Amino acid sequence: MPKPRNPRARVLPPHVIATEVQEGTAQREAETPAEASVGDVASGRQKPSREASQSSQKHEPSDALPSLPDAADESTGKREPAVSQPEEKSSGQSRFGRWRADREQQREAEIARENERVREHNRREQIRRDPALDGLRAEDKVEPERAPLSRMRKLAYTALALVLVVALYIGVVFFSPLLAVEKITVRGASLMDSAQVEQKLSSLRGVPLSRVSEDRVRELVGSDGALRGVQMEIRPPHELVVTVKERVPIAAVKRGEKYALVDNEGQTLREVDSAQQAGVPIVQVEDENLSQSAAFRIISNVLVTLPTSLLAEVSEVKADSTSSITLILKDKVTVLWGTSQENEVKAKVLTKLLEATRSEDSQSSGAQGQGKKISVYDVSSPLLPVTR
Fold it and tell me: For residue 200, is it within any domain?
């Protein structure tokens, strides 16, 4: 069974092998003694002993190639196998030998470089570990490699960064003057004085916008009767807008020489000098405490349900009792309202009656020059209204 080929062995081309064989044959012929006896030739060459053959194989270089059989014997005319002769051949005489020599040199150079690297590494380790040599050769010190951050350390650094960002944000927003109040704008004030409201809020100047609350604004504005509430709006970086929500006056009550404006709850908003300045109907009730008066509650319910156009024509409201409410218009027309029930239906019926009668009055006055004027509207029964 043939011996398996070494996968790392180099395979030479056929023409190179032929050249090597010819060179080996020529060298062996030159080394053969010229004085060989005729008897030796006639009897044939003797094969060398086994010990000599082994000795020859020991001294033969590893790059020697097998020789070809010798030429045929002249006397016998037979070919005999050629005897292997010791072959002393230098690496320069064979391409294969030169290749092996080059490989050996490269291997020796690699081994030398590896040994040098190991020595240099050992020297650096000695310098690094020996405290007595610390600082002698700073350029030879080996800087220790930083270990990669673990997952927990990364999370810790991330959490710390987030805490710092939040702390910086809180400091800038809540305590820094970068977002402080510098301008205060008051809106929606008609019964109240805007300048006075702004003056009351002047203490908020310089306070960070994020620390201003509606409760604080309401506290500074005070308990004004006309104030229902406040609404605050922040406009960075320095403006504070305060919208005042006022109560709506629906009637006026005469108190001495002045008239007090009141809302539907009987809350006094402010006082004016005349009924014309009030701009709302004048209410006549016996009770002075309007918030506790039943008659005023009935009147307020009637006034709230009146359309804006009809409410503008009412100049006075009387309530002799809870079932007897009377409206007096600006043109001195009397409206008998009755109770506070079906207020919306009564308001619609009264509006239609006023439009119809005024249209008829205008037509009759144009035709005859003088028409009959209606002075009383009775809508206490809205389905059966009466005019007189």
Answer: yes
In order of 82, 266, 284, 288, the CA distances from 291 in angstroms are 146, 5, 14, 9
The rounded percent of the chain whose pLDDT value lies above 90 is 23
Same domain, 314 and 265: yes
Tens digit of each residue's pLDDT (9 = 90 or more) over 135-169 = 555 555 556 666 676 888 888 889 999 998 888 87
Q: Are 285 and 366 in the same domain? A: yes
Rg (CA), the chain: 64
pLDDT over 60 at 386, yes or no:
yes
d(CA 210, CA 172): 10
Per-residue pLDDT at 186 exceeds 90: yes
Does some domain include residue 377?
yes
317 shares a domain with 256: yes
Mean pLDDT of the chain: 76
Helix axes 343-368 and 294-305, enclosed angle (nearest 10):
60
Is 69 domain-assigned? Answer: no
Q: CA nearest 334: which of 356, 350, 352?
A: 350
> Is 162 inside any structural domain?
no
Same domain, yes or no: 333 and 381: yes
Range of the domain at 229: 177-246
Would the pLDDT of 131 be above 90? no
DSSP 158-220: HHHHHHHHHHHHHIIIII-GGGB--EEEEES-SSS-HHHHHHHTGGGTTSBGGG--HHHHHHH
CB 247, CB 234: distance < 8 Å? no
